[in-house]
Amino acid sequence: MKKEDKSAIIKQLESTLSEYSHFYLADFGGLNAAKTTELRRICFKQGIKLVVVKNTLLQKALENSAVDFGELYGSLTGETSLMLSNVGNAPAKVILNLNKANKSKVKKTIFKAAYVEESFYVGEDQLEALIHVKSKNELIADVIALLQSPAKNVISALQTGGTTIHGVLKTLSER
To answer: What is the mean pLDDT of residues 13-20?
Structure first.
């Protein structure tokens, strides 16, 4: 490959990485053509971009980034696929479902590392933690639900109290 071609690929990887807030490094080398096509379809439906990359070119693109991705460089060995997403836990769920579906057929480790919510997750044991990482929208929804809870409790108590007082007054008036 010519140096100009490599530079173009590195620039393209840099722009692709800047478009997405989260990415995963994975190895899908043990999949046959049908399973790979199925994986690509699932990723497309989930809004995940799946790109097979050369480790050295990806490392150079990461080095040119404003963020220090030094922790991920050790994971850039063997075959590497880049899963890019704006939802932090979507690729983890896809990888987990793929592992469950192909438990006996795939012998390779699929998950290598990830950069999610400005944190690094390296090693297959981190996949379970990544599944439970909430997205920004999920966290906002949780905060809103927590803020609404006391107001709902007050309104409920006032409504219940009104019917209770009415019931007590009605009983007293009947006596």
So the answer is: 89
User: Tell me, what amino acid is at 121?
Assistant: Y
Domain covering 3-133, topology: Alpha-Beta Plaits (3.30.70)
Q: Which tokens is 118 given?
A: 């400005």
Phi and psi angles of residue 122, each rounded to the nearest 5 degrees, phi first? -120, 130
For the chain, helix, strand, coil in percent to 5 are: 60, 15, 25
Per-residue DSSP letter, 65: S
Query: Could you state, in order of their start, the residue ranges of all structural domains in the chain?
Result: 3-133, 134-175
pLDDT tens, position by position, 17-65: 888 889 999 998 878 888 889 989 999 998 999 999 999 999 999 988 8
